[in-house]
Amino acid sequence: MIDNVSIPETFDLPDRLTIEQKKKDDMLFDKALELIKQKDALLIAHYYTSETMQRLCEASGGFIGDSLEMARKGRDSDKKLILVAGVRFMGETAKILSPEKTVIMPDLSAECSLDLCCNVEDLKRVKSSVKDAVVVAYANTSAAVKAQADWIVTSSLAVELGKYLTQQKKTILWVPDRHLGSYIANMSDSDIYCWPGRCIVHDAFEANALDFVKKEHKDALVLVHPEAPASVVAKADYVGSTSQILAFAKQSSAKEFIIATERNIFYKLSLACKDKKFIEAPVASTKGHCISCANCPWMELNTLEKLIAALNCPKSHELSVDENIRLGALKPLERMLDFSRDLKEGKIILE
Ligand code: 13P
Ligand code: SF4
Question: Which pLDDT belongs to residue 94?
């Protein structure tokens, strides 16, 4: 683990929405839908946004997906106005891939703790001290960090890329998620210098408490996102990205699942598997309070109220990426999308 980089001990989290604010948001559904159609925008939302946002996305003919699919959809759509409901790196990725499109977000201050754990100056310094390593950056990073990387990867492709680079006898400098980094190293037997960042949502899943829940639900399968700690991953029946968890639950013959990822995924899980039961994996708490309660506080910034404001005033909600940085980040992002395509088409064979 790399130890000479600055990682925030705590994060300045946005205030939680009150029940009144959530109710108000629900009442704005029709207005938001009307406006999306009027402005001919494509709404792309992550599975971790609220159920109301996901329903709006479905009703407007938009797209809900994991971070890899969101990137692909933004690039391939012929709509000129892309509305990204997620966190900032997701909006930036859309802009990097489609500079000619207007990319807006309900709230430009929707951070991600992983992004905040990796500043570009630290990365440049560490990079120069491990010159032999290939820099692989998780998609959950700023455009400036991406521009320093050889490869970008999302959780759905991370192990495969680890195996691919190991086949080529490469050493990896991985940023910024410590848990995903060690998971890649274990699964692909790769040689990794690992950054010590963390996702405040997934880092809080708790292995001992999970044992109790498993005892109460003996037949349940445990599905875990790889940003969770190794002790939780070790108890998983399946580890995967949000889309992969969803696909696994759909095709599985099991009827009960314990889910260790952000709780808004329950909307799609329940919709896709009406006859199955989903149980939240337990999270650690301090003095009786959990930090996130498996609910990403930055994803929650994506309210319908702000989405309406963004459509009414796109200029103040628009993503911009410096052109030099964009060009630097474009290469490793395109490498990822090509890698994903080549894997699917069987052009890359992993041992
Ligand atoms: P996915 O790549 O699985 O969508 O994950 C993104 C993310 O932010 C996980 O916390
Ligand atoms: Fe970032 Fe974690 Fe929120 Fe995902 S759940 S956006 S990794 S803070």
Answer: 95
